[in-house]
């Protein structure tokens, strides 16, 4: 069973491992040795964390746990006009098993209950875009690196 717990400083090493797993394919293409990869990923992870804290200071940062083990993270921000999916990541062994879909559907249910759209940004070329589209998200903006997407409950 999936359980969400509030992220704490004790989760930092897991979050770095998770971040590294998300970026590994991209970083492997650079041809760097392991020390170079780890140094780069550590810096990028810290920059991402700072950016999230600055952009969404009140975001809910949760660790996704399955059978007590951390397997991912989900960050959301509740803004007056919308709920925002800041980040969702799962370790590779837990991807493509319906867990991301389950988490996103729960966010959609919350957003619908609050009468708000659910918004997110996805990196161009990220395979997750297909999942978002299957769950009813549509593109609202296209930038050079990211695409903005939004889900809104259909009017009945």
From TrEMBL:
Residues 2-156 form the N-acetyltransferase domain. Keywords: Transferase. GO terms for molecular function: acyltransferase activity, transferring groups other than amino-acyl groups. InterPro entries: Acyl_CoA_acyltransferase, GNAT_dom. It comes from the Bacteria. The keyword Transferase applies. This is GNAT family N-acetyltransferase. It comes from Paenibacillus rigui.
């Amino acid at each position: 069973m999936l359980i969400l717990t509030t992220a704490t400083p004790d989760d930092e090493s897991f979050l770095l491992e998770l971040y590294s797993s998300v970026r590994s394919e991209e970083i492997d293409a650079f041809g760097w040795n392991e020390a170079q990869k780890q140094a780069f990923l550590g810096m990028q992870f810290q920059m991402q964390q700072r950016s999230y804290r600055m952009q969404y200071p009140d975001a809910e940062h949760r660790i996704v746990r399955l059978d007590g083990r951390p397997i991912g993270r989900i960050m959301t921000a509740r803004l007056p006009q919308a709920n925002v999916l800041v980040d969702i990541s799962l370790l590779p062994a837990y991807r493509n098993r319906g867990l991301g879909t389950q988490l996103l559907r729960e966010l959609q249910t919350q957003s619908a209950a609050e009468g708000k759209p659910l918004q997110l940004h996805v990196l161009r070329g990220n395979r997750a875009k297909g999942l978002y589209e299957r769950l009813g998200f549509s593109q609202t903006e296209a930038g050079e690196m990211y695409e903005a997407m939004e889900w809104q409950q259909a009017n009945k």
